[in-house]
Every structure is written in C-alpha cells, then in structure tokens.
Amino acid sequence: MTNVGSNIPSFELPDADGKFVNISEFKGKNIVLVFYPAAFTGVCKTELCHFRDDLSKFSNMDAEVIGISVDYPFSVKEFSTTNNINFLLLCDYNKTVIKQFDIEFSDFFNLEGYTVAKRSVFIVDKAGIIQYKWIADDPGQEPDYTEIDSKISSMN
C-alpha cells in the first residue's frame, strides 16, 4: 500500500502512443499523479481539463502532472486529442499500477468484473517520496484542487 512518507512504487506504462514511460524518468521533479476511472466520462473530463487549464501553474512549481487510467492507448489518445489534454496520460490496461497503489474500484458502473482506478491524486516529491494522498470512494467526487495547489506550493 502506498502511504504518505513511502516511496513511490516503480512502474512502467505505455502512453497514448504506445511508448513505454518509466516513472523513474521523473525523479528530481515533483509529480502529481492523477488516477481517473475512465476516459470519456463526465467527471473525468472535468477533472483532467481542470489540470490541463492549470498546467502552467504546476510547471512553474516544477511539477509534472501525469494522468493514469486503465483505458487502452487508442482510447486515451482520442480522449487526449478531443479534450486538448497537454500532459502525459498513461495506460494501466493490465491494472498492475492500480493494484500497487491499492486503488482498485471493482464492478464499476455496476458491471461485474469491470475494475478501474478509484479517482485518486498522489503528490510525489523530487526524491520519490509520497507527500500527499487523496482517494475518493465515490467516483463522482472531484479532488480539492486548492488543497493540491497548496501542497505543491509548500514543497518548493
């Protein structure tokens, strides 16, 4: 389980173009990991567009925003293009990373066996230590964006 104060688990996932990205490539930067249940759902679009619209603020605080869902690369690519998402989106299609973070949401949308990521935000510092953790039990709940901004700001 990933808790505040623990090291971020190591992982490698494909991006929307199928290119594998290792999370260790971001060591030395603050990271905002945004796990979302599924592309093309209303709350996910709202949440990721919020991060898109605030991306320059995160960049100014030396923070990389990375979105992760269990969707396949072709779905993530279309979602990214349709919504002008200008940060990295990764595809946990095997659900290995959501298991590492212990954020599996089983039977999503009342579909037996359909597992997605719980809507979650983890903030990781430049040394790879988790400094902030927020997990929603309700997939319709958005994170407290002000709290996220405040945490990133305090880390600089």
Tell me what the structure shows.
This protein has 156 residues and is of the alpha/beta class. It has one domain (12-17, 25-154): Glutaredoxin (3-Layer(aba) Sandwich), CATH 3.40.30.10. The relative contact order is 0.23. The chain has helices at residues 42-53, 55-60, 73-82, 96-100, 145-154, and strands at residues 12-14, 20-22, 30-35, 63-69, 88-91, 104-105, 116-117, 120-124, 130-135. The strands form 3 sheets. The protein has a 5-stranded mixed β-sheet. It is globular, with a radius of gyration of 14 Å.
Core attributes:
156 residues, alpha/beta, Glutaredoxin, 5-stranded mixed beta sheet, two-stranded antiparallel ribbon, 9 strands, 24% strand
Compact overview of the structure:
This protein has helices spanning about 40-55, 55-60, 75-80, 95-100, 145-155; strands at about 10-15, 20, 30-35, 65-70, 90, 105, 115, 120-125, 130-135. The chain is of the alpha/beta class.
